[in-house]
Amino acid sequence: MAQHGFAPAVLATPERNFPRDFQQNAYTWCVISVDAPEWYFCPVYKTILGKQEDFDKICSETPIALAPGLFDVPKADTPPPIDFLRSLPEVDTAGFWGIYALVMEKLGFPVKLCVGSGTNARDRVLGRMRDYDRQQLLPRFVKLAPEAGYTITHRGLLC
């Protein structure tokens, strides 16, 4: 048993000769279908994506585009360098939802990273970025960074 009290997942890794979109969908399914307590995942995941057939249909109808190089990051032996995060595609004016990374810096201090999602039905990622601009509706610990003198130096899309 792992420290969190349930058996670790056994992930069936897709073969490398499959297309990347298939691999990323298979890895995602492994993560969201792990046998874990209900509190471990948002219950919406298991409700909407409860069966692999449903998940596969959603993936085929709404493909996810990953940032360049992101697919290989989880498989690397070391975390990505900060320059990788700075190279993520900028959040622009397109009206879509996504997962973003904020690089926050303060001279003489370690770089901070915030990963979040912009999934509001109307405002999407740009609405979330406006929240950061206005310093409103920020997660509790993210709010501490600007208060401590950190500034957001890059806003990049992960997917």
TrEMBL record:
It comes from the Eukaryota. This is Uncharacterized protein. It comes from Lasiosphaeris hirsuta.
